[in-house]
Amino acid sequence: MFRNLLMTAAAVGCLAAGASAETLRYATARDIYGLDPHAVTDSFTNIFTHHIYEPLVRYDADLNIEPALATSWEVIEPNRVRFTLREGVTFHGGQTFDAADVQVSLMRAVDPRSPLRGNLPGLTAVEIVDDMTVDLVLEGPTPLLNNYLTNIFILDSGWLEEHGATAPIDASQGEEGYTTNNANGTGPFMLESRRPDALNVMVAYDGWWDSPEHNLTRIEHSPIGSDATRVAALLSGEIDLIEPAPLQDAPRIDNAPGVHMMQNPGLRTIMMGINMGESLVDGNVEGNPFQDLRVREALYHAVNMELIRDRIMRGNSRVTGSLIAPQVTGYAEEMDERLPYDPDRARALLAEAGYPDGFAFNLNCPNDRYINDAAICQAMAAMMAQAGFEPRLVTEPRQIHFQRVDNHEVDVFMLGWATLPMLDGFSVLSAMLATPGGEYGTFTPAGYSNSRIDELTQSIAVEVDPEHRLEMMHEALMAARDDVVWMPLHQQPLSWAVRDTVEIPQPADGLVRLWYARVTD
Amino acid sequence: MLGFLIRRIIQSIFVMLAVALIAFMMFRFMGDPVNSMVSENATTEERDEVRERLGLDQPIWVQYGRYVARAAQGDFGLSWRNARPVSTLLAERFPATAELVLVAAGLSLLIGIPLGIFTALRPHSFLAQSLQFLSLIGISLPTFVTGILLILVFSVWLGWLPSFGRGEVVDIGWWSTGFLTLSGLKALILPSVMLCLFQLTLIMRLVRSEMMEVLRTDYIKFARARGLTNRSIHFRHALKNTLIPVITIFGLQLGGLIAFAIITETVFQWPGMGALFIQAVSFGDVPVMASYLVLVSLIFVIINTSVDLLYAVLDPRLRVDGARASH
Questions:
Q1: What is the ipTM of this complex?
Q2: Do A400 and B278 touch (CB under 8 A)?
Q3: Residues spanned by the domain of A368
Q4: Looking at chain B, which residue has its C-alpha nearest residue A367?
Q5: B85 touches chain A (CB under 8 A)
Q6: What is the reported pLDDT for A172?
């Protein structure tokens, strides 16, 4: 009897050791906004909820689209796409996944009150064909449908109804939604507990339909706002993965035992927009000199991005002449060539355009949005001054900076664009190059309008033949390049730091996908 | 006494209204939260629509009026950042800040007063001299530097104490406390030391100078002439009289502690109200910012009122004056 007990105890001990608890503790600069996947568009919050909820199709670690809750899809009419859903998927709460869940979730995401609706444009209805088949009815051909869908997560319809949460959350209505603090998805991890700004705990979901590549049993996520404290927590062994790791601490982290940096160029391309409107916001000459292509080229020639890379970015940025990163559909190598750094040429062009003594304008930058944003602008201001311009540097917190950009109260202004979540050059064309109006041109610099680009953008939006689509995109992006509407600067680096025992891919979109993470002893 | 309290309550309402008004006037310069709320790809129309729904297209005084009208009914609105009621958010964070400030204030009194007495009684001893020197450092070093230094020494080098967070907390009703677990207590040490350092050195120096002054007065000399023991002279007669200014300063500084807690909470990722406020500022979350400022102004009024009441307890002469003044 006693012997039996001992043996049982030993067996249990072995089992426990076999399935040893692999906990990953990771820290980010801030907490998620909430758990409802349709309430926020913030990409960090979305990738966090992606551990719990899943879309119909998803990005893999190399950012290729692969089946998730849908196994296959087919365009049966130009504006109707049929999705076959995965069998045998269950939610963490035990509910079975079916077509009704897809219908309710997608319609919830595109509800007029949902902030997410811009991420799935053109969806008018979801029709249930049978339990495991749905038709997405669209306004027209939508070549990027799957790209959009990677970001729209599926909730259980019954669970939503039970908790009165079928309508999306609306912050202006003054009522708290059940889904803000509770989660029930189909994903690889289940929410165990959440203490805002302190600790979010997820545990592995045994009933996940996919075979896990990760070996984690538990994820502990702590937001740590202060850079210095976040690095200290990694060095002291309290945290296994920090994102982001401050660039200036990279040498220190690499020299510390047991931890190392992970750095790669990210998708986010930093660029300067140029006001081409009737007048400058803060100029000292008549009209707007930037309407002259030679002046815009002069500005481009004045900036030495290699120096900024080496001195300010500590060698970690990828200098670029393209508005989109190489991983984004539509990129071509010939876009990537910059106008060379040449202050003499800049001076000559300025003189040729009739401004031998230069002119004043505002150089508008955020100081808390992109990596080293204010420092980059400071350096650029000095370079532009050397080439004969009189830039007036304005650095402001992001809320104010982007409000100014919205209102066209900027002359030369900084913007970063990652084309998330669709990873397609169309996002640059529609938001930053097309003539403003309707859904187009939200960030297009004042005064810029190129009818050929507008024409191409509208064709690309509905072109389903990938090759033809690419050709048109190429033409439009090259035209924008020749017009020097935007001056691309660099792709800013992704900067993570991990304990040596952690293996995790670092996708170019900079999002932490822990379902690919492994912890070794 | 009752009249005094009623007057204070009415005053505090005006203080809170004024603070909210000033806050709303400043929010105009904070920029636009809408860009953080919509997706990067959102069109101009979508942005305008969100602005309209939040009332951001209205003039400041309308926004202020709406806020006050709703707040008067106990509805502080929903945070724009995470769509949760502001009152819940503040209630959730209050215990963390309260425990931190309580411990820091306690430490500064429990250590500061004895040290002050010691340095006053033995001003020429080596220990007193070095304490005086150290207190200079404590008073002049910026708190965030001390915080980072503490983390470097006790978390990174020695590995004794956690560098961030509150450790494990226990929920008692709506109050979450870190006092009941070992990790919670360990997590309290560094932040409360950082927070109390300035206050502690201030109290020590104040007690010292007050005490030295009192020790020179005539009634202490008489007490000595009466042959009282040193102990009775120092602690019964001298100390009591040094405490009035100490309490004034302590009361004023207690509000300061709550304000300084913002920095401490940021450095140590302490999930309190200060950290909440900082995030609200960087997001442009107007309901949270306004409510935090109103709450803090209320706390200030409460502290100052309690200090005024405490005077009366400590000094019988003020009791008469206070009663007269309230009529």
A1: 0.83
A2: no
A3: 269-491
A4: B282
A5: yes
A6: 60
